[in-house]
Amino acid sequence: MSSTASILDGNSFKASDAAALDPRTRELTRRRRVLGDAYRLFYRHPVEVVRGRGAHAWDAQGNEYLDMYNNVPSVGHAHPRVVEAVHRQMSELNTHTRYLHEAILDYADDLLSTMPDGLDEVMFVCTGSEANDLALRVGREYTGGRAYIATAEAYHGNTALVSAHSPSLAGAETMDPTLRVVTPPDTYRLGDETAEGAGAAWLARIEAAIAEIEASGDGFAGLILDSSFSSDGIFLGETGMIRAALDLVHAHGGVVIADEVQPGFGRTGEAFWGFARQGLGPFDAAGRPADPFVPDLVTTGKPMGNGFPIAAMAARHEVLEAFATKRPYFNTFGGNPVAIAAAQAVLDVIRDEGLQRRALDVGAQVREGLREVALSHPAIGDVRGSGQYTGLELVVDRETKEPATALALDLLEELRERRLLTSVCGPNNSVLKLRPPLAFESSDVPRLVETLDASLTALGA
C-alpha cells in the first residue's frame, strides 16, 4: 500500500513555498488557514481562479489558462444551458426527495437508459463519496461478505468507510482490515494492453486475492473499481482488457462496484460509461457493446451536475433489494429539484453537442500530438489513454522505466507558469493526468502540444 497520501500531497502547496509568492497570493494562503490545515491547494504558486468558460479559466489578474484537468465542469465551465436550468428551477422550488417531483423520475429514467439492461434502480446523493459509501454497504448486505478488493492507488472518496477502501490514502488513513489490495494492470510496464498481457496478469492477481479472502473467512463482498485506473496511473488498455477478471468476481458471488466519477459520462469516447468498455464485440453509436458487461452497482459524482452537487448509485434491483428491505435511506439534498435540473442539462448537452464523439476524436488528436513531442523528449516514457483521458508518464530512463517524480512535479509548475493547468497521478506522481472538460476542442490541441514541448525544453528534458 502507499506510504503517503500521494493523491492529495503530490502536487500541493506547502507552507515553505509562501516566501516566493506575490503579496496577494501569500495573504490568501495565510487566510486559508481558517479552513483548517487538512485542506490542500494545487501548485507551489497557487492559482486564484475567478471565472471560466468551456475548457478555459481566468485568474484574478485576467490571465487565461487552458484547463487540462477539471472534470468537475464536465461539459465546460459555466455552460449556459446548465446555468439557465439551475436558475430556472431555483426560481420555482427546491426541496428534498420526500415529496413527489416528476423531474426526478424523468431524470432517473433518462440516466438508467444510458446503462445496460439489468441496472434498473437509482438512488441520488450529493457526492461520489456518499455514492461509494452507500454502494459498499449495499454490496455487503447483498453478499453477506465484508472483504472488498481495490487497486493499489485507488481513491474512492472521503467518508470513513470509503477512505478505508482507498489505498491511496493508506499513509494517512487506517485501511479496512478485510480489504485486499492488488496492483493495476500496468499496460506500460507489461508492454501489452491486451487480455493476453496486462489483463491476464491482473486476472491472476484478482484470483489470488479472492482465494485469500475465501480462505480467511472474511467473506467475499466484491471489487470496487475505477475502470480507468485513474489514480493508479491511467491504464485503460484495449476494450475488454479486464473483462475476465470482472466475470471472475461474479463467478465467486461478489459484486462489482463501478466507480464512474472519473471515466463516466462519455469521457472515454468509445462508451458512455467506463465500465462499458469491458463489453465485448462491436460498439454501437450509443457506446453499447454487443456483449455488455453489467456491474452490480454504478456510482457517479461531480461530472454529473457540472459541478453542482449531485451524485448517484445505480443498481440491479435484486442487489439493492437486500439493503432496501432492511433499512430506510434518506439523503436530504440528494436528488433535489435544482440538482436534478443541473444533471438533466448535462445529459442533454452531452447528447446534443456530441461530446462523447468529440472526446473520442479530439482525444486521439491529443495523444498523436503528445507522441510527436515524445520523439524529441526522452523523458516521456509512455502516452496512453482513451477519449478525453490521457496519461503521460515521465521516466528517468526509457530502458529501465524508472519514474521521474521530481521532473513531473517541476513540469507541472512550468506548465502552470505557461498558463496550462493539470496534475499528476500514479504511485510515484510521475504520470501527467490530462483530463480536461469535454468542451476541450481540436483548436486547443496545438496549444497543449506546444506548451508541453516548450516546458520540457525549458527543464532540459
Automatic annotation (TrEMBL):
Keywords: Aminotransferase, Pyridoxal phosphate, Transferase. Gene3D superfamilies: Aspartate Aminotransferase, domain 1, Type I PLP-dependent aspartate aminotransferase-like (Major domain). Pfam families: Aminotran_3. It comes from the Bacteria. GO terms for molecular function: pyridoxal phosphate binding; transaminase activity. The keyword Transferase applies. The keyword Kinase does not apply. InterPro entries: Aminotrans_3, PyrdxlP-dep_Trfase, PyrdxlP-dep_Trfase_major, PyrdxlP-dep_Trfase_small. CDD domains: OAT_like. Belongs to the class-III pyridoxal-phosphate-dependent aminotransferase family. PANTHER family: ALANINE--GLYOXYLATE AMINOTRANSFERASE 2-LIKE, PTHR45688. This is 4-aminobutyrate aminotransferase-like enzyme. It comes from Frondihabitans australicus.
